[in-house]
Design goal:
The protein is mainly β. It has one domain. Helix content is about 0%, strand content about 35%. It has no helices and 7 strands. It has strands at about 40-50, 60-65, 75-80, 90, 95, 105-115, 120-125. The strands form 2 sheets. Strands 2, 4, 5 and 6 form a 4-stranded antiparallel β-sheet that branches. It is elongated, with a radius of gyration of 19 Å. About 25% of the residues are buried.
Length: about 130
C-alpha cells in the first residue's frame, strides 16, 4: 500500500492575521522581521550602553522590550561599538528577576575590553 504524494500540494503562505503574536518569524535582529525571533515567544531588544568603564567593570542596565509578558530569559546576543571597536562584553546576568515586567528586564553586564560608551547591545528577550 503506497502513501499519496504529499509533495505536490504546493506551498501555503501565512499572512500576519493568521500568525500567533510573536510566535513565528525569522531571527535576524537587523532585518525587516526584527520583532520576532524564530519559532518561540521572543523579541529582539536593543540598548544603548553608557558609563565608560575600565575592563572588569560590571554595570546594570534596563532592557526595554515589547514581549507583552514577563520574560523568563534576557540573553545578550551581540553588540556593536563604532567608537571603540575593540569592545568585548561578557554574557548578561539577570538582576532582580522577580521584578522583571512585561516591558522591562534588568541585567548586569561585565566589560572585558573597550568601553560601554557608544555600545549598542542586542538582547533576545524570551517569554514562557
Amino acid at each position: 500500500m503506497s502513501q499519496p504524494n504529499r509533495r505536490g500540494l504546493g506551498v501555503r503562505t501565512l499572512y500576519g492575521p493568521e500568525l500567533t503574536s510573536k510566535s513565528l518569524g525569522v531571527g535576524d535582529p537587523d532585518g525587516a522581521g526584527a520583532v520576532r525571533v524564530g519559532k518561540q515567544n521572543a523579541v529582539w531588544a536593543k540598548v544603548n550602553l553608557i558609563g565608560g568603564g575600565a575592563p572588569g567593570t560590571a554595570r546594570e542596565f534596563d532592557v526595554g522590550h515589547d514581549l507583552g509578558t514577563v520574560p523568563v530569559l534576557c540573553e545578550l546576543k551581540e553588540w556593536d561599538n563604532p567608537t571603540t571597536p575593540e569592545t568585548y562584553l561578557s554574557t548578561a546576568r539577570p538582576v532582580g528577576k522577580e521584578k522583571w515586567t512585561a516591558t522591562s528586564a534588568r541585567v548586569r553586564i561585565l566589560l572585558i575590553a573597550g568601553s560601554f560608551d557608544g555600545c549598542v547591545a542586542t538582547f533576545k528577550v524570551s517569554g514562557p
